[in-house]
Write a structure and sequence with these properties.
This protein has 142 residues and is an alpha+beta fold. The protein has a domain of 95 residues: Glutaredoxin (3-Layer(aba) Sandwich), CATH 3.40.30. The chain has a four-stranded mixed sheet with strand order 2-1-3-4, with helices on one face. The N and C termini lie far apart (56 Å). The relative contact order is 0.14.
Length: 142
C-alpha cells in the first residue's frame, strides 16, 4: 500500500508540474448569486461548452459569489454591483467587464472584444539549434 501511495503521489506531482507551465495568465471571473435568473440562464446556455471554447481556453472561468469580491486576488477597477458580472483579469488587474447576460448571441462577441484587449502572448524562446558533428569540424552539410 505504501508503494502505491508514493507512485500515486509522484504521478500527481508530475501532473501539477506539467500543468503549471500551461496555465493561462488571463482569467474570467463570474460574479453571481443563486437567486439570479440571468446567472442560471448563463449556466444553462454557456457553461457546459465554455471550458472547451477558444475563449474558455484563453481565459478559464472562476465563479465567485458577488459578496466574495475580496477573494479574487485581483484589483478590480470598481466594485461589482450586479449579477452576473464577468470580469476579465490578467496578472492581478482588471482588463474589462461585461455586466449582465443578454444571451448566447451577444456573450461571445462581447467577450471577444474584451479578449482583444489582452497583450499578445510572449513566445517561448526557441531552443538553440544543434550543430552536426560535420559542422563542428568546419564541413558544410546539406
Amino acid at each position: 500500500m505504501t508503494r502505491t501511495f508514493y507512485v500515486g503521489l509522484l504521478a500527481l506531482i508530475a501532473a501539477v508540474v506539467a500543468h503549471a507551465g500551461s496555465v493561462p495568465a488571463a482569467e474570467l471571473l463570474m460574479f453571481e448569486d443563486a437567486t439570479c435568473v440571468w446567472c442560471r440562464r448563463w449556466h444553462a446556455e454557456i457553461a457546459p461548452s465554455y471550458p472547451l471554447s477558444p475563449e474558455g481556453q484563453q481565459a478559464p472561468l472562476r465563479r465567485l459569489h458577488i459578496r466574495d469580491q475580496g477573494l479574487t486576488g485581483a484589483t478590480l477597477d470598481k466594485p461589482v454591483t450586479a449579477t452576473p458580472t464577468f470580469v476579465l483579469v490578467e496578472d492581478g488587474r482588471e482588463i474589462g467587464r461585461l455586466v449582465g447576460y443578454a444571451g448566447r448571441d451577444f456573450f461571445y462577441p462581447l467577450l471577444g472584444e474584451l479578449l482583444e484587449r489582452l497583450p499578445p502572448p510572449t513566445p517561448d524562446p526557441a531552443p538553440p539549434r544543434e550543430r552536426s558533428a560535420a559542422a563542428s569540424r568546419g564541413a558544410c552539410t546539406l
